[in-house]
Amino acid sequence: MTVVRGLREAFLILVITGAVVAVAAAIWVATAGGAYTNRLGIGLVVVGGLIGVTGDLTLSRMGMLGPRATFGAAPEREAADGGRVLTGVGIFLFVGLPMIVVGVLLIT
User: Fold this and answer.
1) Blockwise average pLDDT, block size 10, the chain, 108 residues
2) pTM of the complete model
3) Which of 5, 43, 50, 83 is in Cβ range 3.0-4.6 Å of 21 for a Cys bridge?
């Protein structure tokens, strides 16, 4: 059951980010001109890379270590993921990597 929830979460993230990138590429083409598929491919590669790198909450947790220590708060627990099923590796493999591959195929 956890696998199905993880795949559903990955699919939802992929669809939402894909739609946002498609709209951004359409706006980019409307303002600057050019081929839509190339702009969409560039957008997918950029967003896929960003999601692959920052898909986990590690970067935001590292940024909060100083303020939490200043106020005497305990470090965040690893289990406090807000109901997410996918880890950072899962988000990279099932969301970031497919977006990068599709983006590269659209550019070429």
Assistant:
1) 86 92 96 93 93 68 67 61 72 90 93
2) 0.74
3) 43
